[in-house]
Design goal:
Number of domains: 1
Strand content: 5-15%
CATH architecture: Alpha-Beta Barrel
Structural class: alpha/beta
Order of helices and strands: EHHEHHHEHEEHEHHEHHEHEHEHHHHH
Low-confidence stretches: none
Largest sheet: 8 strands, parallel, barrel
Number of helices: 18
CATH superfamily: Glycosidases
Mean pLDDT: 91
Radius of gyration: 21 Å
Length: 431
């Protein structure tokens, strides 16, 4: 069989690795255990969690809030559960990122630093940083004028600098590359005055008054605001280039986005075609997130074809967590899991010509029944085909209504709800 370049990326969140398993509260060997579990599944490329709003490593940045470190949790989360206390203790005792890098190097792993790019939660949440809490004026604004405290606006230079400082620090600590994860909280930009006022200056139009069904006008507005995420990528490149030259390190930038098409990406704030044309990303990974009414064509192929034209690796969409169906409370829905469905999804990406697969929450997949065995088959086409055609595997994993889409993003809405959102409103809900 013809050999091909194929990489299985794990996306690991140590907090979930600890929180889901009480016997890990805590081992004092947390990062090493997590990496060992990935290696046992054949995964030696791992995107390691840098954080979201709050950071998951020991940072020297003056504005950083670090999980389990300092007074933040004494003040804002005094009633933490035993799970969270164990997790915070693990992050307090050791910088798990530095441990993962040292141990990963011993084991021959490639470790990227993954930053969740725009998820800041709400006031009172332990996941909200001081930087986010103290700057409500930089939070996004909805079309209806309401403050969106879970997002910050990329049109604000100070916010872009805050994100870039974290990524640059991770590079200096020693990660092999960076993953900028934009899958959570689309759209990445909304209606902050910094956006609306500038757009009015340039076009004479009020973006908040655009006819939702005048598609060309709406897409022009979306293209304008997506330019600020493109600015972030340009500024990151400028920040990393001296570091790369000094140390002779490539430090590839991998960006993770939904795979619902380039137009839907533009609406979310991601001008993917420009990113590729201007050499702002080195790799792309995908996630099948169901979030945008009217856009239900989730497909890796257009991205794979673009990547091949531009010489940029593209990793297909896969996920170990089942869809949450009404909120995430830390518990896994056992009825939404089907390792055979997940394996078929990965094989589809392989057949489409992807350079690998990006397995979100691979830490959880390591202990889900049957899932770790499926992941162990992802390493080659021969193993994967043997797995999906195994009669015993097929018999043990019947496809049901609840698990038929296992592997899509766990924050996805249902197809039925997306259709209802269109029917229930004369205005497009995503605006």
């Amino acid at each position: 069989m013809e050999q091909r370049n194929w990489t299985v990326w794990g996306v690991a969140e140590l907090s979930c690795w600890i929180l889901h398993r009480p016997e890990r509260w805590t081992t004092g060997h947390d990062a090493e255990d997590c990496i060992d579990a990935h290696l046992a599944m054949g995964i030696n490329h791992i995107a390691w969690d840098l954080g979201r709003s709050v950071l998951q490593y020991h940072s020297d940045l003056p504005d950083a809030t670090c999980y389990g470190v300092g007074r933040h949790y004494d003040e804002f989360y005094p009633q933490a559960s035993a799970q969270y206390k164990a997790d915070m203790q693990a992050c307090h005792d050791r910088c798990q990122l530095r441990v993962a890098l040292m141990y990963g190097k011993e084991k021959g792993c490639t470790i990227y630093g993954r930053l969740c790019m725009n998820r800041h939660y709400h006031p009172g949440s332990p996941g909200k940083s001081r930087f986010s809490l103290l700057h409500p004026e930089w939070h996004e604004i909805g079309k209806d004028g309401w403050l969106d405290t879970s997002r910050m606006c990329y049109a604000i230079p100070e916010y872009r600098r805050e994100r870039i400082a974290i990524l640059k620090e991770a590079a200096e600590i020693g990660v092999d590359g960076l993953m900028l994860d934009f899958v959570r909280q689309p759209p990445a930009l909304r209606y902050h005055p910094a956006l609306v006022n500038r757009y009015r200056e340039l076009t004479g139009k009020d973006a908040r008054s655009l006819d939702s069904f005048a598609k060309a006008e709406v897409l022009d507005w979306c293209r304008f605001r997506a330019g600020y995420v493109t600015d972030l990528l340009k500024e990151l490149k400028t920040a990393l280039d001296p570091f790369r030259q000094k140390w002779g390190k490539r430090v590839p930038v991998q960006v993770r986005i939904p795979n619902d098409g380039f137009e839907a990406n533009m609406i979310a704030g991601f001008d993917v075609l420009t990113w590729f044309e201007e050499g702002l990303v080195d790799e792309l990974s995908l996630s099948e997130l169901h979030w945008l009414p009217g856009y239900t064509d989730w497909d890796d192929k257009p991205y794979i074809e673009l990547g091949k034209r531009q010489g940029i690796p593209v990793f297909g969409s896969s996920n170990c967590l089942p869809v949450q169906r009404g909120g995430w409370g830390g518990k896994i829905n056992p009825f939404g899991i089907n390792p055979l469905v997940l394996a078929r999804r990965v094989l589809k990406s392989m057949e489409a010509g992807a350079d690998g697969t990006c397995l979100y929450q691979s830490d959880t997949g390591a202990f889900l029944p049957g899932v770790s065995e499926a992941i162990a088959a992802f390493g080659s086409e021969e193993m994967l085909r043997q797995y999906v055609n195994d009669s015993a595997i097929i018999a043990a994993n019947p496809v049901t209504e609840q698990n038929r889409e296992y592997g899509i993003d766990n924050h996805s809405d249902t197809r039925e709800n997306l259709a209802k959102r269109i029917e229930a409103s004369s205005d497009a809900a995503w605006l």
